[in-house]
Amino acid sequence: MIFLSYSDKIAKSLMVTAAVWAFFLAFIILADIIARGVFNSPLHGTREIVANSIVIIVFLQAGYAIRSRSMLHSDMLLSRVPPIVKKIMLSISYSLGLFFFLVVITGSWDLAIQSWVENEYDGEGALKVPAWPTRFMIIVGGFLCCVNYIALAVADIFEIKDVSTEENMNV
């Protein structure tokens, strides 16, 4: 199914982007530690960059976690129930996940728009980090999570061959 293929590619790309971002974030933190230890002067804005980056990284990787079936569920329980009960349980869990991320999106929408319009920044002093990219990434990541829950539901309910689980979403 082409929808599942595109979902996989987007999820993988965002996961790799998040991993690279986290890698570079480690160097920013290291530079701050060295600056504090050696020069007794912190790298200004590190706290704001890290705080916003962690939220962005989580929402970049959430879609991949869902699509690769790495989100929380009990395989032990699912493997011991009849197929129809398994479908019902999976349908309920996908619906709850979809509902959760829809609530996250709707709860974040007004804040993201307000942040964009008011040109909101985090931090004070030498470096101010714009807050709107983080707020919009919550919406984008939440939307991808919703899409991936729908993709899993379609694949499981209608027994469509799910390539992502066979290949284990290898990057």
- Kindly, what is the distance between the CA atoms of the first and last residues, rounded to a whole number of angstroms? 19 Å
Mean pLDDT: 86
Strand arrangement in the largest pleated sheet: 1-2
Total domains: 1
Give the ordered list of helices and strands.
HHHHEEHH
**Large-scale geometry:** elongated
Strand content: under 5%
Low-confidence stretches: none
What is the number of beta strands?
A: 2
Biggest sheet architecture: 2 strands, antiparallel
Helix content: over 70%
- Spatial extent as radius of gyration: 20 Å
The helix-and-strand class reads mainly alpha
Secondary structure tally, helices:
6
Structure, explained:
With 171 residues, this protein is mainly alpha-helical. The chain has one domain (2-167). The protein has six helices and two strands. The chain has a two-stranded antiparallel ribbon with strand order 1-2. A hairpin with a 6-residue loop joins strand 1 (121-122) and strand 2 (129-130). Helix 4 (83-117) packs antiparallel against helix 5 (132-157). The radius of gyration is 20 Å and the shape is elongated.
Secondary structure layout plus pairing:
Elements: H1 2-38, H2 46-67, H3 75-78, H4 83-117, E1 121-122, E2 129-130, H5 132-157, H6 163-167
Antiparallel strand pairs: 1-2
Helix pairs in contact: 1-2, 1-5, 2-5, 4-5
